[in-house]
């Protein structure tokens, strides 16, 4: 067995009370903790704001900043706000006391840690004022601590006098209220406390859609095994690994500072994570937004070609598809006499030509290849390849747009790779409709069919990224425009919750034998939410039949193994839509076609009516 | 009885089919109709888009524009789009045929009438594609014809095989879907068809909140009275008057062109409207948005002073209040010996001084008046009044801010008029807290208490106005910013539906005897929707006790008769909230106070969570 990789795991030791700051940091460090999580206010100092102006009381509620250097404050300490206050109390005095306490603490916490972490424990979903007081003008990260399962629910199992509202018992709703009131502020993240009880799988998946930044583990969820070691249950171990894989989150361990097993907890967590570590080949791309390519309108650059040519799977599948098509079209008896005409439309820097040559060689079929490419920069590469590497091959290079190409003969096989993350979004239908006239009546197109898929999803991280693209003269203004909120994006969506399974949207078949070709489409899809959640938009995928049973797919249920060329598509909604468990989600999707552009429009008609997004392609036209 | 006023009523004659355009216009004019409403497409010309390109069929589907002049097209004709098509059919061919038909007609209609009217009849709430096709890039007004009561509902009373969804039977939902999909486009308005059945009152009130531009009357809702005249039922007459008063709408009469009573219908409608006409003294202000004044921060100008001084009621009530206070403070036995000190804080151009002088004279009490005014321009007027008109009165003019004023003696009565539409929004609490130190221990403040009120409301017209304030480089962009959507406005709200009754929000008492004065406030209010509706924001009002039982109020249930100085306040929500009948609406309202400004924040927590509006007063601070 190979040595577990030295991945970086950051663990903070949570202290209920604190006597001596430097000693505590030293003690935690010796026990293999990177930092300590401490109450910001010192217990000894009671505060009374109503009777006493802040000025005189200010220096007395906590310790001095001079105890540590700025770097130590930032890296070694997570400040925790008082949780004994109630900003949402119906009693005005209690509420005002809470507001003043938290404002004072927040101000001091930001003084100490600048852009660092501040921890706030959430105790209910009645938190509008709390959200207002604690999130205004945040500079650092407000870690909102939420238990995975409401302690009252556990209680309710054996107590009948417990009073909690239905729905309000779900701690996700606490968090959802808080961050909705805070307008999905990117500075607000989750510190999710693992509880002894583990919720249903779908509830865990919903948490995976949230911006979880830390996992909180209490020493009391550790079990003692036969060897007297503290261990986590199998289920808790799996959770730990799952959250670390999704978020690369850090950990906060709640334990008594005198607990003899302090070192063990830290080492055990690291051990579990390291021994279950799997490198994600797409690491680094997580939830990063990209604008979909428009290879038809823009000429791709060398860097982009190179990235796509590196796909370990795609061109092998193309090669297999061409090989099978060649075998089907030319019986063994004719391999010496019959030459198949292959047209590669959109040759790029030659990967499909290479696939076609390999297919010909493997199937021992004779081929003549026409390579059509409109990008003059790619033509340079193709010419060089043909003149040097492929000079003994029967290849003709044509520098033109495939829609205007006038070949001297008709093709047996038309090969193209104009597929985008949503199938038709790089305009393969429009291109292939133009090129298919050069196909023999029995000729085949590779790919011969592509289908797009959609599902509604909760993706606050993506949503916040899009929102933050809005430029504003005044940083405090809230700006939402169609320019960003109605665009479409490509992203490796990791931190997202899929509200329902994908459904097919549009289908395109090549060659298209309809008497009048119309590539506009309109489809209504109906989904259902299993849990309360927030819908931020729709994830899009595609699959494509290259030839017979050879397909490529980024549909999550049928994803081609190793295929790396496409991330999912994301279609945002202008404003997040709060959805209740059991509610139906009805979405309309249009593919619109005009003389010089193609675009998608979308809106929802349930659970509530939305305006139509990307009207006339105002945010994102795809130029023909 | 006086002659009914010659109000302008515009009536169009709706023609099912049309043979000769000019004749028809002439015939209608002779029957006292201003215009005719005609099908845009000519029945003789069947259209088939799928088989035939538009170019060749284009000139054949309707009549030529040369038949009339542009002005005639605009003023004499309302074009009606085909209603035999179905843009939301599940059958792709039917849908595409519908799209092409309507696009062609719309294009031609806009060619004919430019910014004029185009009529479209709505037949169901399944209209996402219809809304998309007919509202994109609208230049004119799209009149969406909707029956007040669904004909199927009437049918269902005696047929059991009628199939319609529950909820979908409400034609308001058809309209609401349509305009929600069309993003509350200001170009889209309602042509409401009065049906024989009249819905419940609250449903009628909901329609009064919508942008109704025309009322459609079919000849078959006319009854024949004993004298063989066609008349409307009393209920229909009342509806007619109500809608005309609210909207000044025009009318479309559906009748057979050969109907002998054509002239009578037109004359009858005009007769009903004229004989029930009541001039609204506020006419011209309807639903116009104004930014609330900040008289503390900005110096009011002469025009504004003049407008407010014209209020026929306000200063009489002030005078009465001062008079009663004088009588209470100085018994008859002391009227020769005791002089009451009145301080008018915020003297403006003197109306309160005048009220105080009148009160003194009427009560025969002696007064000394200090007039405090910070606006140097108003000081000019006040000096002139004191030196000329009031030179024998005991009046001292002090040119300063009332919060800094240091008077030589303490006052019996402190009179001010710093009230805004939401009571405290012109900072009366802050001002009076500063001035009240000059009051004798038993002195009184006029006003002595003010209370603000709120209720949720549907006000698409106001909402659209606010939305259209957003400036955009590209007219097609959808832009929503806090700058406008989180501001507060003052408006004479006529075209609005009040979702629930107002409730009290904040209360301020003067003088404020709290040991520590805190003018920040936080209140949570709970409302309930009786009908499906859309919430665009909250209407705000106030009432104020001047002295004892003398009050001024703009609360709709207790509105002081004739009081004209204040319109309602409007607090918008960033995005309209679709509300279902029976749903609870929970809103939080904050009054926030900082060293140099005061502002309101608000959000809703039910039926769904909204972000907090006007955070830190980003859209609308009220400067101290």
UniProtKB/TrEMBL annotation, chains A, B:
Residues 32-274 form the PRMT5 TIM barrel domain. S-adenosyl-L-methionine binds at residues 305, 314-315, 373, 401-402. The record marks 308 as: Critical for specifying symmetric addition of methyl groups. GO terms for biological process: methylation; regulation of DNA-templated transcription. It comes from the Eukaryota. Keywords: Methyltransferase, S-adenosyl-L-methionine, Transferase. The active site is at residues 417, 426. GO terms for cellular component: cytosol; nucleus. Belongs to the class I-like SAM-binding methyltransferase superfamily. This is Protein arginine N-methyltransferase. It comes from Aedes aegypti. The gene is 110680820.
